[in-house]
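Something for you to look into today, if you have time. Could you write out one complete protein record for me, on any chain you like? Leave the record below and I will have a look.
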Amino acid sequence: MSVVPAEVLPGSALGVEETPTGAAELGPRARLWPSLCAVYRAQLSRARVARIPLLFVATFQSIGIMILMRGVVDGGAEAQAVVAGSSVLVVAFVALNLLAQYFGQLRASGGLDHYATLPVPPAAVVLGAAGAYASFTVPGTVVTAVFGCVLFGLPMAHLWVLVAVIPLAGAALAGLGAALGLLAPRPELATLLGQLGMSAALLLGVLPAERMPEVVRLARDLLPSTYGVEAFARTFGERPDWAFVLGDLAVCGVVGVVSLAVATWAYRRAAVR
């Protein structure tokens, strides 16, 4: 006696449905926001061990600069520029310098191949990594701003504007750092470019613009962090001109979108090589 599988019997309820010829239907493509959150959490957990050293170096570097500048700057607009520039420098140290090094090493070690195999949009990889690194800057920036206000006797009534300055300036600098790291042919060059970018943010952001030559001022206007510094510095006045503050923040936002778009293009370019 032979046993016949039930699936082949005529009229069986267990019969296999016929499938149309052609390729099988694939699952839905991963959406940007869930993919971005997944990459952000993964990057944040991987970098958790290095959180304290990053905060220590970035914060105390800026505090040390303000202490040095206290000997040559008494107050007024120059003190406002020093405090604002030192606070945004914390963002530049992490979002620009360290992110350029990270993507440079990731490209050299073949780590981009891992992300290329994941069903996530390229923008999610860039934005997730940039957001994770920029998150480290929040405590250091706040501590630096409060210390600077106490050191130079500036009002702290409008420190809430950092809620907008940190993400917008962070996005602009993180996009620039990621693009430098992904476009650099070697990780050593990515590290060098990141260091040069942070040095530019230090010299052009912390030093008062009134004491700079005209050529240097033009270079300062091309630096994305300049507009975050200007927006923050304007809030120290007795009657801040909020129209100019919003204008500077809007420029930061536009530059952030452009720089992150360039970084996403650089990621696609580096991933296919």
Q: What stands out?
A: The two ends are 61 Å apart (CA to CA). The chain has eleven helices and no strands. Confidence is low (pLDDT under 50) at residues 1-27.
